[in-house]
């Protein structure tokens, strides 16, 4: 979508005014005078330092708060932690005493804050509102957060959740389908002090869906809005949603819930893909049976798309559909079900920018099933991580603590990469493991039982991406959720400007 430069500047200025710490990753010092006879020269200095304030937004209970639809009592737990210093690629945190806190938006503390790196702040969130995760001073750099749930039986049987993220003005989210009983909810969270207006446009196999619905969705200040994508199109086979915010920035996820007749078919959150580009990589695609790759072309030009699998042994061609043409503005699904069971990366390249994500399902004959979405991610340049606390409602059938298995999947594309995986246990003890990921390959580490996990590259020039696969086996089959990992905020850049008078 083309937007004028003046519109981008206007949106950015409003976002900066309304969000504060959410966009505190970069800022400029010095004065800039406007008007005839006064200007500013090029920045004379640029200094980087550890961030002193950072925040993430979590959507909160996805199946609550939709007007005209009964709330579903799905328990949600939010957890946040700050990376251990050894994983922060040489960055030392700010020296001032800090805290990591959870806040129920628009206001109200949630759980107890933490003041030590490696410790996890967690709390159940029951209300239909988002959660703001805030780190200050010594606890500001390297913050990661996630929300999750477990429903072991019934119509909503699933293991699901989403990493909490930094808000933005534009997203592409891949999720959903046109099956009977399938429903997609777009959950928008506004951490800023001004209302934000959002346009949501669906794309499908025949291009963008023409509909006035989805235009002008209002997200209140420090608030949340849920929107049913079925109101735009309820039977779109392969939906992809384009989200554009005006007047500020928002967090966005799509919850995909499927009730196949009377049988639960799963639920999971899909998070935004990496921005449109000609090279997309989806880490942590755990294939066992039914799976698909969904590719959308945001622009108007036709794309020639090539997809391949990044395995432990290197790149492999898809069994079928590895090279296809996709019309501009449209969406195509590629079947991955013939891949051998494994957790792999999927690389998708094209001659024009694209977006991509993968869907995996778990099913036994005549039993409930579950699903998980894995989105493409940007390249990791610093540290990425995730708390691994038990999901909300975390009791397995028969009682007791849910034995969720956690696996970290790391891909390297273009070249090899040495990667350190640091885990922190419930007592704060750290364990480091180093792996060498081959060219266009994927490596796995089991991190079950850890309180949090952190990933960063230590050698090589391969482009690293990672994700966490969570799995729970019971008598009815396997439950699954996939969380892609993104860079945590580490440093801020202060640019000094000098006023000059001609």
Quick structural summary:
The chain is mostly beta strands and 502 residues long.
What would your notes on this structure say?
- With 502 residues, the protein is mainly β.
- The protein has one helix at 5-19, and strands at 26-29, 39-40, 45-50, 53-58, 76-82, 100-104, 120-125, 131-136, 143-151, 158-163, 170-174, 182-190, 196-204, 207-208, 217-219, 223-228, 240-246, 251-260, 263-270, 277-287, 291-296, 303-311, 314-317, 323-326, 331-335, 342-363, 369-375, 383-387, 405-413, 417-424, 430-437, 441-446, 452-460, 463-474, 477-484, 491-496, 499-500.
- The strands form 9 sheets. Strands 20, 21, 22, 23, 24, 25, 26 and 27 form an 8-stranded antiparallel β-sheet that branches.
- The two termini are 39 Å apart.
The structural class is mainly beta
Instruction: Count every beta strand, where a strand is a DSSP E run of 2 or more residues.
Output: 37
Mean pLDDT: 89
Helix segment tally: 1
Q: How far is the first residue's CA from the last residue's CA?
A: 39 Å
- Main β sheet profile: 8 strands, antiparallel
- Which percent bin holds the helix content? under 10%
- Low-pLDDT windows of residues: 1-43, 396-401
